[in-house]
Specification:
Radius of gyration of chain A: 29 Å
CATH class of the largest domain in chain A: Alpha Beta
Strand content of chain A: 15-25%
CATH topology of the largest domain in chain A: BirA Bifunctional Protein, domain 2
CATH superfamily of the largest domain in chain A: Bira Bifunctional Protein, Domain 2
Largest sheet of chain A: 8 strands, mixed
Distance between the termini of chain A: 23 Å
Oligomer: homodimer
Number of domains of chain A: 4
Largest interface: A-B, 84 and 84 residues
Strand order of the largest sheet of chain A: 7-10-11-1-21-20-17-12
Shape of chain A: globular
Structural class of chain A: alpha+beta
Chain lengths: 533, 533
């Protein structure tokens, strides 16, 4: 079997809700600071401390706020300290400083309840500038980080962007999540982490792989960077290492997408002597047991919900439905038959009633939806309307009160209607549903809905009538369907393949492998017509 | 600061002594086996079990030994089970089988005390062949693994080679060691693991890097695979992430060596606001705290021994001396002055008295030592002799009893003598010392000697008189020596660089970085004459 969890997607999805502030006494071990900027409290008053960090703010050249990854604290220039005063006067924001001084409790009226260290300040004895920042920085560290804002500039000055608390939190959150996954797999489930090579030979028929020319003495030959450790881990299973995992770097020369860069990382695992239920249970345990403490209230419980691929496509138009809202596709072909052209044999009209979505239908959103749907080759005509809209379909509908009565549409709801060939209508509605969910701001709700999508088809048929693997040629048919490989219609076979979906994002998945050499050879040679030698 | 531990060297050095046998109840979770082949004991008698594994042995077609990564167990074909009997008769060694049956205690005379499961057997109810191995295997799994034996064949059939218990142990040992290091760094020392990119831009002046042509839309441009995450982690420090580590894949297009392949892995870490003592203490804690349970008796204790680079070169002729033996270099120029040619101004003769090494001086070893030393461009004439040798130097020595009286050589000792220019004599003796240590079999002694080598020179002078960095241009001078960068002899500067040596192998090291931009610019531009823009 195979399982994987794509880390970037998973941690990006989870990290939306995280506001963790690391606070750890060990953070000062092996350094010359005594405390982090985030940990000083009233009970430290009277202690001589050293803190190091970045100059966040300077008020009146007497109050300097120093920030590090753990928080911030105010340092104070005592009267008569001329040289410190001069240094503070010249300091630029984001310069790196080392401050030694005595912690004192602030007078009540000067306490800052918005600052966790706001009860105290450090009266400076020594103020050492470790490095001076330029007076003007190319990016502002004051603004909240938005993904879209100046992304090129943010990447160019990545070392400044990383100083933002949100970026620090995402890096720490991810590290923590992966560490918990490792602890679960290693300590609770007896898996062995093995590092497999990344300089590999090219996979025939593989998607876009990066190629690496070899140096001496192999000039003229090439390595290739693997898209996943798939072949290596199968060899490990053959080699008797029956419980393998790896936090594995994968490479795909397909350009950057928002959720996948040319190199990305997945928790990659493989287990011998198991079946689909075993792997699903394992991954559910992995997710639940390594769930971050910072979001206990959102921890899912096993078993997760399941849905067949056929149901997902029928009800939601996508193979990774976002179930935070329960809007489903319904057929209204009979009511909208006037839209049908006589030449259309294979025609339908379908609707999604999007409860509560009316307020999200800005004209900007409508325009963007039209543009995005128009880019699909399977695009179908569609309409998005509310009761307030001048009903677009009035003329077409046999019943004037179609929206209100047939669909039971309320003032606050929206109806997404699409018509054309069934397959394309489904896909179009699936996309519109996703776009509309995004617009409703459900992303900001504290909600985590996990879903297994199962029973995928094993093969798809290409336009030239050749069968191709829906996922990859090593996936096993569902138990009891093996014989259909030999004397049935392979298109009817469902695969032992399963995807894990979180809030509409495919965060993981896997499949049971064909372990019988003769069956594998048959699939490659007789069904896929690939060179299996 | 920077620190790193090269994993392959470290785990290869440590794994020499490991004989761990994984035994874990969780190893059966999520599988259809009930037990591993290594865990059945007398108290399981009467239980119905399923084990899966590889056919190790077949006696009389009735007793089949099944092996998995956790051990092996005997399965027994009961009387009258014709179909099982037939299957067992046809089974080939290394075929994969699933066996269900009842655990029974063997009669006392049939118990096998050499086998941990030797008190019991599994009386077979069902014998399923999951996959059949060919009758003849290309490599034998019976032999003990030796590094040198048929290495090409072993690599070609890696999936068979990995089935050997020793290979399984090395993989598991390494995984365990790395997991303990991660736990220490994350949980005890508040470090954050960050994955840095491996598709990077080329470092000017870097050693042989692998180059990766970019695909669309960047055709004609190139990535490069980094030799280490050095630049990324420095950016992380600038970005305020003050305690970073990574188990990092590194790439060097320099061909394979026994202890370094084109891609290798190191535990890579960086810490802000620290000094050399801080980093050394951190790495000592990392090593001691993550020390494997399987070899507690060899656990080192901090602080480790230290030695200056100058002393290492003077006493041992290498910068990574193996201190499992205390043989040191001594000067005997005066005694051997008759070997000196008049033209030699800069001449010396030196000796290592290798206590107890006489028995290791086979003629094969002498021949091989001569060949290896002869390959050096700095090779100097040398002799290796014992009291039993017809003394090679009799004529040359003013005192006939030189070996016995001056060097206090005993019957069991060897003397390694070399003469020529001091620098080359040191290097030659250093190499001969290492070769002789190997020959004495000290490798098989249970002994772990850690050593810090410190106070390396910051710069070396090239033949064209240009100064170059002894390690890399970002290394800081020792405290108090900064001014020598500007108005002194840079060759006299010692660096804040330190290597960790284990049994003569450099397993790690690090350096404090220059954090001041003006100093760094001065080093690059005025001392190294590099383009620092």
């Amino acid at each position: 079997m195979l399982g994987r969890i794509t880390l970037q997607r998973c941690s990006t999805t989870l990290a939306t809700f995280v506001r963790c502030c690391p606070l750890s006494a060990q953070a000062n071990s092996f350094t010359y600071r005594t405390h982090t900027c985030g940990e000083l409290r009233r009970h430290h008053a009277g202690e001589k401390v050293t803190v190091c960090g970045w100059v966040e703010f300077n008020r009146l050249n007497r109050f300097v706020v120093i920030r590090d990854a753990y928080g911030h604290v105010q340092a104070f220039v005592p009267d008569g300290q001329e040289s410190i005063s001069a240094a503070v006067k010249n300091i630029t924001y984001e310069s790196v400083v080392k401050v030694t001084g005595t912690v004192t409790e602030r007078a009540d009226k000067h306490k800052n309840p918005k600052m966790v260290t706001g009860d105290v300040q450090v009266d400076i004895d020594s103020f050492e500038v470790l490095n001076t920042a330029p007076a003007t920085l190319p990016v502002s560290l004051r603004k909240e980080t938005e993904v879209s804002s100046d992304s090129a500039l943010r990447l160019k000055y990545r070392y400044l962007d990383l100083r933002k608390p949100q970026m620090q939190q995402i890096l720490r959150f991810r590290a923590n999540l992966v560490h918990r996954m490792r602890r679960y797999l290693t300590e609770e489930a007896s898996f062995v982490e093995v590092e497999t090579p990344t300089l590999f030979r090219r996979t025939p028929g593989g998607a876009a792989e990066f190629v690496v020319p070899a140096g001496k003495p192999n000039i003229g030959r090439f390595y290739s960077l693997p898209q996943s450790p798939q072949q290596f881990k199968q060899l490990l299973m053959v080699g008797g290492l029956d419980r393998y995992f790896q936090v594995a770097r994968c490479y795909r020369d397909e350009g950057s997408k928002l959720d996948r860069q040319p190199e990305f990382t997945q928790v990659d695992l493989e287990l011998s002597f198991t079946n689909q239920e075993g792997v699903i249970a394992l991954i559910e345990q992995l997710v639940c047991q390594s769930w971050p403490d910072e979001m206990t209230e959102l921890r899912p419980s096993a078993p997760f919900e399941r849905m067949t691929y056929a149901d997902a496509m029928r009800l939601y138009g996508v193979d990774k439905p976002d179930l935070r809202v329960n809007w489903q596709i319904e057929d209204i072909s009979a009511s909208l038959s006037s839209l049908k052209k006589e030449s259309n044999d294979d025609w339908c009209a379908r609707v999604i009633v999007a409860k509560g979505a009316a307020k999200s239908l800005s004209s900007k959103w409508r325009k963007e939806a039209k543009r995005l749907i128009g880019m699909n080759k399977f695009a179908q005509p569609f309409a998005v309307c509310t009761l307030k809209d001048d009903p677009l379909f009035k003329a077409a509908l046999s019943n004037q009160d179609f929206l209100r009565e047939k669909l039971n549409l309320q003032e606050e709801d929206a109806a997404v209607i699409c018509w054309g060939t069934p397959a394309d209508v489904q896909k179009t509605l699936g996309q519109l549903r996703t776009l509309l969910i995004e617009a409703t701001g459900v992303r900001n709700q504290k909600k985590m809905v996990f879903l297994w999508v199962v029973d995928f088809p094993l093969f798809d048929r290409e336009e030239d009538d050749q069968l191709v693997s829906a996922h990859h040629p090593f996936t096993a048919p569902a138990p009891g369907q093996e014989r259909l490989l030999f004397d049935g219609n392979p298109e009817e076979i469902t695969a032992q393949h399963y995807d894990l979906v979180l809030n509409g994002v495919e965060v993981g998945g896997g499949s049971i492998r064909i372990h019988d050499a003769a069956t594998q050879r048959h699939v490659l040679k007789n069904i896929l017509r690939e060179d299996s030698t």
